[in-house]
Amino acid sequence: MSILIPSFNSCSMRMTPGEKRLVQRMEEKLDDNYLLWYDVPIGKKQLHPDIIVLHPSRGLFILEVKDWKQDTIQTVNPSTFTIIADNGIKEVKHPLQQARDYTLAVNKMLEKDPALVQQEGDYQGKLIIPYGYGVVLTNITRNDLNNSELTAVFEEHLIICKDEMLPSTDAGEFQQRIWNLSAYQFGKTLISHQIDRIRWHIFPELQISKQLSLFDQDSNTEESPKLQIPDVIKIMDLQQEQLARSLGNGHRVIHGVAGSGKTMILGYRCQHLAQLGKPILVLCYNVSLAAKLRQTVQNPNQVSRVKVRHFHGWCMDLLKKYNIPRPDSREYQGEAYTEELVNIVIAAVDAGKIPAGIYDAVMLDEGHDFKPEWLKLIVQMVNPETNSLLVLYDDAQNLYGEKRAKKFSFKSVGIQAQGRTTILKLNYRNTEQVLRVAYEFAKEVMTPTTGDDDQVILVEPASAGRQGTMPDLIKLPSFQREVEYLAQRVQQLHQRSTAWNDIAIIYRFKFMGDRIFQDFRQMQIPIEWVNENNESRNYNPDKESIKLITMHSSKGLEFPIVCIPGVGYMPNENQELAEEARLMYVAMTRAMEQLIITCHRSSEFTNRLENALTKVSVKA
Q1: pLDDT at 327 over 70
Q2: What does the alpha-carbon distance between residue 499 and residue 490 come to, in Å, rounded to a whole number?
Q3: What string of DSSP letters covers 403-446?
Q4: pLDDT of residue 452
C-alpha cells in the first residue's frame, strides 16, 4: 500500500467525493514505493496541487482532480473552461495547464540542486527523474470523453477517467495510466537520501536547521540568486511528516523516545496554526527548554501569536494579568512557593477570576514532568470550539519525582487521548553508539511497558542507525584533574573547527558547576552558566560559548558534543538509584555526535558504564 500524507482519516473530510475515490484507489492499487501527498502546499509560494505522486523509478507526477460532469462544462478553449459551479457560472483555468504550471514550478526548484540533476548523457543538466502531469476526471468515462468536444483540449494520455479508477480496475493498468503521464524514462532509481532531498526542496517547512528553527529560511526562496543548498540536508522523516500533517483539532498524545523528533513536530504544528492566526500556548517544565522552544517556534520578524513559557512562569503571568495576589514569599519558600502558586491559579480558574478556554491551541512538551492537577488545569485553558491540545510524552525522562499512579489515565485529567495517540520509537538525535551505551547503562529502570492509548507507557528506543564514535569514559586522579582534562579537550575540539556553542558540559551537583565555571573563565574559555543567577531565562543557544548546565535543565536540549564530569559521585545517596539512573540517561542522550564522561573514583554508575561500554563494543 502506498503512503498517503496526510493520512486518509485526517484529510478525507475536506476531500471531494471524487478525490476520496481516487485516493482510495491509489492506496489500494499502488505499491509501497509510492508516496502520495494530498493538498499539501509546495515551495515558498505555497502552490496547491491536488495530488503529488513520487515513485523512486517512475518519477514525480502532479494531478489535478475534477469532479465535473459533462453537463457541468459549458464551454472550453485551450486556456480556460466555463463551468456551472455552486455559486453560478464561472471561468476557471484549464486544469491541464494548471497541472503543467505546478509541475514546471517543481522542476525549476529541483533543477537548482546539482545533486538532483544528471551530470552526463543526453539529459545532462536535467532532473534525475522523469516528471509528468495530468488530470483526473472522476465523473466522466473514457467513452464519454472521446465522444465530446473535450478531446480538442485534452491529450488522451494525460487524462484518467472515472471508469479507469474503479475497485475492479487492474492494479497494473492503473499504475500504467500514471506512468503514461510522462513521455520518457531514465531507467534509474532514486535512493532514500535523494527522495529526502526532493522533499527538502518542495516542502521547505520540513527543513531542519541546526537549531530546528522553522522561521529562518526567508532568504532561501526559489527566486534567490544566493540560494545555498547544503551537501547534507536534514529533514523530517516520512513518519514524522505524515504525523505532523495529520494532526487536526482534538486532543492528541505523542509517546516518543528521546531524540524521536517530538519537539520538531510541535514546531511544525505551531507554524501551521500561527499561519491561521490562532493564539497558541506552548508549555514545558524547565526554563532552559522554554528558551530553546521560544527560539524554535517564534518568528523574530513578526509579532508572534505563539506564547512559549515554562509552567510556573505561565502561572505567574496569569496572576499578574488578572490582578490576583501572588503567594507571600515570607510564608512560602522553595517548592512550597511554587506549589501554592499553582494552587492559587487553579482556584482562580475554578472561581472564574481567570477565564478558561483562552487559547485556540495548547501544546505541552515533556508532558511527563507535569503533575495530574497541572495537566487538568492546562486542559481547561483550551478553547472548546477548537479543542486543540497536543501532549508530547516520554515516561523514561520523568525526572521530577512525580510518580504516576498505576491507574493514571489521560482521561482522568480531561485529556481525550483514546484513538488519538501515536508512538515514535526511532531515535534520530544520537549515534547508535551513544544510544546503545546509554540504554545499556539504564535499561534496568527503563523496562518497556504497554497499555491502551489512554495510559502512560514507556517506549524502548530504537536507533535510526546513524554511526559515530564510542563514548569515552576517562578516569583521572581527582575532580580538579577532570576539570583540567575537559578544558584541554574542549580547546582541542575548538581548534579542530568545533563551535563553542556545539559543546555542553552537563553536571549533577552545584560544586561541579562552580569549579568548572571559575576555572574555564580563568583560562578564557567562553562559557555560559545556564542555571546560575537565572541566566537560563535569557538562554541563547546561538551565543558562542560552551553551555554549562545541570542534568535536570538539559532535558529537551541537544548538542553535538556533551561532556559529563564527576560521574563517580553518582548515584546520589539522598536520591533513589532508579531516579539517578534516569537522570544520567537523559544527560547522556543529549549528545548528538560525541559523549565524553569523566570520573575520579569508582561508584555503581562508573561500574555500569564500564559494563555498558564493554557490551556495546563486543556487539559491534
Answers
A1: yes
A2: 10
A3: PPPTT-BGGGGT---TT-EEEE-EE-SS-HHHHHHHHHHHGGG-
A4: 60
Q: What is the DSSP letter of 545?
A: S
Q: Mean per-residue pLDDT for 57-75?
A: 94
Q: Residue 352: left (phi > 0), alpha (psi -120 to 50), or beta?
A: left
Whole-angstrom Cα distance, residue 18 to residue 179?
21
- CB-side exposure of 507: number of CA atoms within 13 Å? 23
What is the predicted pLDDT for the residue at 257? 86
Of the chain, the end-to-end C-alpha distance in Å amounts to 35
- In the beta sheet, which residues pair with residue 391? 253, 364
Contacts of 539 (CB under 8 A, 6+ apart): 287, 288, 291, 292, 528, 530
308: β partners: 282
Comparing CA positions, the residue from 238, 216, 213 lying closest to residue 54 is 238
How far, in Å, CA of 39 to CA of 15, rounded? 9
CA atoms within 13 A on the CB side of 502: 15
The angle subtended at Cα 72 by Cα 67 and Cα 76, nearest 5°, is 105
Q: What does the pLDDT read at residue 228?
A: 65
pLDDT 10s digits, 557-606: 999 999 999 999 999 878 888 889 989 999 999 999 999 999 999 999 99
Tell whether the model's pLDDT for residue 217 goes beyond 60.
no
| Average pLDDT for 517-524 | 97
How long is the chain?
620
Pairing of strands 421-424, 527-529: unpaired
Question: How high is the pLDDT of residue 388?
Answer: 93
Decide: 261 and 244 in contact? Cβ < 8 Å: no
**Cross-sheet strand order for the sheet of 59-66:** 3-5, 35-38, 51-55, 59-66, 131-137, 159-161
Q: CA-CA distance, 246 to 5, in Å (whole number)?
A: 7
Q: How many helices (H) and strands (E) does the chain have?
A: 17, 23
Q: How many CB atoms within 10 Å of residue 103?
A: 22
User: Which tens digits make up the pLDDT trace of 153-165?
Assistant: 999 999 999 999 9
Per-residue pLDDT reduced to its tens digit, 489-509: 999 999 999 999 999 999 999
